[in-house]
Design a protein that fits this description.
Blueprint: H1 36-51, H2 57-70, E1 75-80, E2 85-90, H3 94-111, E3 121-125, E4 130-137, E5 143-150, H4 166-176, E6 184-189, E7 194-198, H5 203-220, E8 232-237, E9 240-248, E10 254-261, H6 267-282
Antiparallel strand pairs: 1-2, 1-5, 3-4, 4-5, 6-7, 6-10, 8-9, 9-10
Amino acid sequence: MSNSTPSYSHRPARVTESLSPDVSNATADLDAYHDPVAELALKQLCTAVANLRATGIDQWLALLRRCLLRTPATTAFVSDSSGLLIADAGELESDVVEGAAAHLTQAMDRAAHTSLGAMDSITIRYRRIWLSGHRVPLADGTWQCLGFAGPLPVEPMLRPPECIGADVWAPFLQWSMGSQPSNASVLSDATGLLVGFAPEGFRETAENLAPHITLILERCDGALEGAGAPRFISSRFGDQWVSIVRVRLSRFRTLSLGVVGPTPVSESRSYDLKRVMRKVLKRKLVTAAT
């Protein structure tokens, strides 16, 4: 493996087999996976913080911008062990980052007094944002906190399997449209974030439709008392239908597929869609870059 840190792309990957509805059943842990490339990137960034002897804010900003290029975060920051913000870069306002840094360092400092020893990192999930802090020991015995905020966790073991590259989902999304040339497909996660779409020119509509698919499912959950969650939903928008199926990955994580077309997807077709979605998740379609 090269010593240089690769740029971030949801999960460095390549498709090793073409998708077929007749793929064989395989077993896989859908709640975690190992990504050595992402782990190396995070380790190298923490080492860079420990080795940096910054004499000005520009050096910190250069390092934090490097963090944003090599992780899925949209904001990166560094604070001292007391929670005092040293520097930040990215989308969040500095006053928001200051509060986040203070809370993360307090949590990490308190954990140091437990029998488990010092906390190396902490990751917190909010509605649509992941916040994480990483302890960086310094040569003088003190430590700093390297923090991240963004739509995906920086810790690779916490990233759900739907974070595999969009290129892996592309064959399935093309197949899911069926034989109708006017159809399109949208794949979204449990928070309404866009995971993938087809065809290529459908991006703007897909980005708008993805959160609505999740919202429709949320509103329909529990609508009929005692019936549980809906297995299949078909909605009509003028002359277009959006047929939605959902695959549950774990208790709180789902993937939702919306197929857009002039006619609704049949119930039998919806079962085929769910079956193949599960097989895409279970198959070893992705190999980590080395």
